Structure formats: structure tokens, C-alpha cells
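In the previous chapter we treated chains in isolation. Here, by contrast, the input contains two separate entities that must be folded as one system, with a combined length of 892 residues.
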Amino acid sequence: MTSSIEFEQLNKFQSDLDKCTKCGFCMSYCPVYQEERVESSVARGKIMLIRALLSGELTATDEMADQLNRCTLCMTCAQNCPAGTQVPSIVTAARADKVRQRGLSFPYNIIFRWLLPRRRLFGYVVRFASWFQGIFMPRTEGTIRHLSLFLSALGKGRHIPQIAPKFLRQSVPEINRPPDGVEVKYTIGYFTGCMTDFVFPELGKKIVSFLTGNGVEMVVPRGQGCCGAPVFLGAGDFDTGRMMADANVKAFKDLDYIITDCATCASAMKDYARFLADGGERARDYADFADKVKDITEFLVDILQLPPSAYRVADELKGKTVTWHEPCHLGRYLGVKEQPRQILKSLADINYVEMPDADRCCGMAGTFSIYYYDLSRKIADRKIADIESTGADIVVTDCPGCQIQLTDSLIQHGMPVKVMHIMELFG
Amino acid sequence: MITSKHIDRLRQIVGKENILTSREDLVAYSYDATNLWTHMPDVVVLPTNTEQISEIMKLANENKIPVTPRGGGTNVSGGSIPIKGGIVLCTTRMNRVIEINKNNLNAVVEPGVVLQDFQDALAREGLFFPPDPQSFSGCTMGGVVAENSGGPSCLKYGVTKQYVLGLEVVLADGRTMKIGGLTPKNRTGYELIMLFTGSEGTLGIITRITLRLLPAPKANKTVVAVFSDVAVAGETVSEIIASGILPAKIEFIDNWTFEKFKGLLPQDVLDSSQVILLIQVDGLPETVEAEARQIVDICKKGGASEVRMPEDQAEVDRYWQARSAHFSDISSRTHTIINEDVSVPRDRIAEFIRISQEKAKQYDVPISFAGHAGDGNFHPVVLTDTRDKEHFQRAMRCVDEIIETALSLGGVLSGEHGIGLEKQRFLKKAMDPQAIEIMRQIKDVLDPNHILNPGKIWEEAPDDE
């Protein structure tokens, strides 16, 4: 038996590891298995590999790292597991222990350890990189890409939205009050996430104006940074992740609600307590913080309880057929399933169509799509077929990561369907 | 036994993207859904067509390399564990549904099609394939045929062998053989299909399957009956069958997994009961309604403490999901489970359960029962822990006696899981020695070098526990 210190994080999830009974039900749900059809892609296989790692039968080789990375953390297996095995937690913990043992490889060590935690510097690098974007890769009309992905995706022919000429933090003040005459109902924090800040600032501005117009005072704390998802969930770097978590907790300290327009950011921030808390005080702070984090549709429907009349579809989008892609992090992780649909169904000016398997993973999964671009594309192809079957003009979602994936895949398929954030529907 | 030259040749046959040799991948093919055995293969191949399989078998036969066929690897008898190493031949990449023919009521599939995917495709055409092993979301059609799978619906519809019309099989020496055809009736020669249906991968590799289908029943109705006494539940099953109604399923769940029914049934009823029967009738809307009502009456008269006929489909689904989760639920309670699969004549169910419970008490081991009560196929599960030698030995002795009990009541060793590794120690007791001898001779004809799934069924595995 290898020493338990080597597997500090996995040891925390031992009871989950014990739950798996190898029944193999996960095979029918895993998007990676459905493409590859090998045992190591699916939850049961990964759990058996991790058990072998813990027993010393296997060691933390590059091959093992590859097996652990080949998972989108979409949580579909866990949701359907008869024994209730929380596979994403186990895979994340295994990634963390691997990083502790073997470190991160280039260029991720630079990006994750050094760049992402330094928001302003990160901004400069993104800006710098954007100057070269047109030279190295096809530009996509309209928008985006996460920096780390952006750098790594160079040369892979992916359609990457442009870095915005002016970042969100440069475009909106720290405090945004409702217009005169509108009563302040709530004062909330807006966690903008890297994507909205650097690539989709127009979305951010729209959200600020929508919410302030509906009586919400919006604080955009300057001290906020990256949520940490690519760092601690994707790459398993818990030490850097903890630094980022602390910065965000501090930045939003005095606010009652923290809204996000990115399901991944929201769920990563809610996961600080599960993965990054290392003691009493942090655990409490992270748990309190998690309670305050709300997805924007959840906030609009459950807390602000806006009437349908508050949602006015932009003139140019009236009469369009719209479908909804449910991000894994929104539906399965946050349990926000009905709220966005409730908004969409209430819109008289669009024709809403539910797509088949709307909650199926799009295959983006952050760094996963860099490591395994071809696999990620294959997973996306099924989503594209589902989108096509609805005849929609627009697919809306609530996660900039999914937006990039869908945009890229739709362009690759030569389909004219537009990809938008749900909040972009409104004028 | 296997050399790098052989592996190079295999790579040539299937292509480099269809061969796995890393230690990690070999670990991932060292197990199935049982938990008493693991053994790593030397190499895993994922062929994509019959010709490749034929070439693989030629190579293996010439060099006497063991070949363990595998699909989803969900079986619960140890059948897909490469207990003697060698090649794992995994069919998951041969997963095309080649044809679904509504006029002929048949379908042609490759062995790697997942049963659930097949059912989904059939449902879109208003058709169905009745066998429904509870591993349906992972198991593949090759395994369904090779294990002659059953499941709850077999009460009314029979098991897999009643639906196999034709097979393409690659033999141990690489020859390809087509048997059967497309028609439901076929009296041409010996029923060779039956040799491979239930062969557990020991006689050939199934590469293509033609199946008989049925039109999907238009309606179904579920009755839930709760009993405070096991024997009463057993008698009620007999009364339902004797009443002239043939339900599609009669499933028996004991109070070990009542947790899953929380919120569906009143807590005080759950607390004071021992058995839930889930009964499903299917057919035309008019008839299922009347039959379900008749079953409700029988259950009430029989002494059920609670009888329900849920109208809401979502609620019905929750009951059946609770049933499907039984195996995993029990497995997650302890380190090791021994999941048996005996079948007893229906009128001996109550007696079988009573004696088994006494045995469990005598050996002081926890026991749970779930099963297809309608056809007498029971899954007594003994909970133990291989790390606790003394407990494990007691559990094994208890299981041995339970199996003896089933056999003495006129039952059989395995209703649907197969022999594999799990039950081979009982084979001599459960089968006529003459029949075992004939099996041996058949094996020698079809696989003279004994390379196909060696160590399974009658051929004893090396004792490496």
C-alpha cells in the first residue's frame, strides 16, 4: 500500500470510491465512452484505475494522467449511478494528487500558476495575444476564447472568437446604480468571469443594464479574478486554486448575492468548499460564499421574480426560432433546469423549441477540449445534430465555454445557426 | 505465451487505433461486474469487422493464445474476465444496428450494440425485444446472446434464445460460419444456434445476430403490493399466475432496499413490511386495466398491507428505477457481495426463501432477496467482506447451502447469469455427468486447443484467490 500522504485528496473521497460496484450502467451515459468505446473512458474504468493507483498496482504515469484527463466532468454518470458514486469528485481529486506528485506540464504551469491568478497582467497578455489572433487562426465573427485555450488552440484550425477591443472592467464602473426613479430592490455582486470580461464584454454590459433597469444595484468588484475552474478542476492544481478562491471570497465579502453569467464559474465557486477548504475557517468562508453564488437565470426567476413583461426580446430577434442548450454545470451541478426554460417559454416574441437531449454535454469542458480537440469535436457533432433537428435560428445557453464550442462546431458544419447567451436575447 | 511478434501482428490486423497494450488499459479489462476475481489480459483488441476477428482467431489458434470475448463487460458470473491472460477480444466497436425490418419483425445487429440503444431504436419503430437484463444500459447484444440473458419480462416473453433467428460466428480456428436465417420458422438441420446461445464465449465469437422482434405492447399498467410476510408474498405470486393472467413481470424486492421506495410509499408501511411486489401487465389498454384490477383484488385478498396502481407514468418509472437499482444498492452496502442466481419452481418460492433465511441466520450473515418472482428466478445476495476471511468463509458456506436448497427443491443453478467462474464449483452437482461429458466433446470439436474463454463453465479456473 502506498503512503496515504501521496493521495491526500483521493483519500477524502474514499467512500465514493468504495461505492462503485462496477455494474457498468455508466456506459450508456458517458459522452466520452460513446465516442471511444474503451473501458478506460467510462466512469467504471476510471474508478478501477484509481483504485489500482491507490493499491500501488499502478503508478502515476503519463498514461494514467491521460486516462484521468479524458473526462469532461459532465456528471451524467454520477447522476445516473444506482450506487450514487460521485465520479467527478473522484476524478478531480485524482488530478490534484497527480499534480502534487508530478507537477504541471508546460505551458499549463505558466498559464495556471502564474498568469490566471494575476488578473491585470492576464488582461495585458490577452490583449497582446489578440494582436496576433488574425495571423494564426480563423477569426470568428462576433466573438471569443479563454486565454489558456486561445494559446493552446493555435494551429488547430478552431474558429475562435475575437478578443474584445475593450474589456468589460474597462467599460463599466465598479458600482452600477439603477436609473433615477427605479427603486433599489437588491445590491448584488457580479462575477464576470474571464470570458465575459475579455471576450464578451457586450454581454456583460447588457446584463448590467438589464439588472439595473430592474432595480438591482450591481457591484463589479475590481478584486475579482478567474473562478479557478481550469486550474483546480481541469488541471488539479489545488494550491493555485485556493489562492484564486481566497481572492474571490475577499472581493465579494460584503454582498448578499453573487451572480454569474457562466454556469462553469458558478459551479466552480460553489465547489471551493468541497475541494479547496483546508481547515475550519476556510471551510466556513467557502461555504458561506457558495450560498451566495447564483446563476443569473436562477436569480431572475427565483429571487427577483421578474414578471414575463420584464423580458423584452430585441427587435432584430423577434420571430426567430430559439432552442436551449443546457450546460452540464448549470443543470447537473447547480440543479438549475427549469429557470432558463421558464424565461424562454414566457417570451411571446420568439418560437421556443426544446432540443432532444438538451442536457447532453457539448464536449467543451475547458482544458479537455485542448488536450483532446478531435474527441471534443466528435462529442459536439451529436449536439450539432440535435440542434439541427429543432430547425432553430438561434441556440442560446448560459455558459461562454459552451458558446465557444457550439460556435466552432456550427461553423465547421457550415450551419447558419447563431449561438448566443440567453441574456443576449433581450433588447 | 504471447510475444511482441504476436502483438505486432494483431496491430496489423485491427490497426493501431484498435489495440490496447498499456498497463492502465489492461487493468481496465481485468474485471467485470463480479468482485471475486480480476486478471489482466496481455493485450486488448477492438476489431471493427468479422474479417479482422477471423484473422485474430487464426493467429490465436496457431499460437494457442487464450482469447476472452467481451462486450460491455457487465456480466455477473465472471465470464468476461481473462482469467488465463492472453487476448481480450472486445466487440464494443462493432456497434451498428444493420437493419430493423418492421415487415419481417426482425433485426440484424452487430455484437457491440448496447441493449438500451437497440431498444431505443426499436421503440422508434413501435417494436421491442423482450429480454431485459438489468445491465441493459451497458451490456451488448453479443453478450446478451452468449449469456442467453433473461430479465423481468421473461415471465411472459421468454429468454433470449427464443428470439435468436440467425448468427454469424467466427470459430476458434478463424473459420466463419452462418447459421439460422431470417425466418421465425426454420427446420434445417440441427439447431446449431442453440450451441452458441448461452455458450458464454467458449465456442465461438458471435459477429452478427438476427433477432425476432415483437410489436411493442400498446399499454401497460403497474401494480405495487406490499407484504409484511415473505411467505404470503410468495403465495400471492402463485395465486396471480393461477388466476389465468400472465403479467409481463412480477418482481420481488425485500426490505434491504426499501430505502429506494422512500417517498413513494408511506413510511409506516415500509417500516412494518418485508416485501414489495412490482407487477406489470401489458397489452391492449382495455385488457391491461381489467387485468391490473384483478391483480389488485388478488393482492388485497392475499393479505397485502398496501396495494397501489399508480396512474402517473413518472411515478411508475420511479418504482421500476428503484427495482433496477437493487443490485448496486446492495453492493454499495458492503465490501463484497455474493449474488446468486438460482431458479426454483414457482410453487416453492416461499419455502426457498424461508429455508435460505434460516441458513443465513445459522451462519450469521446478512442476506437480501430480489428477483423475478414470477418465473422463480431469485437473486439471494449474501453480504460479506473478502478482507474478513472468517466472515467470508461463513458466507460462502451459507451460499453453498442455499444453492443446494434450490437444487433440492427442483430448481436450477443459474437462471440467467450463466456459470462463468462464479458457479463452476456446483456444476457437477447440477448437471448429469453424461451431459458434462458431451459438452466436453462439443468443445473439443469446436475449439480443440481450448483457447476460447478458457477456465469458464466446466473447465476449472486456476485457484488464484
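The radius of gyration of chain A is 21 Å. Chain A touches chain B through 30 residues (CB under 8 Å). Compare these points with the single-chain example from earlier in the chapter.
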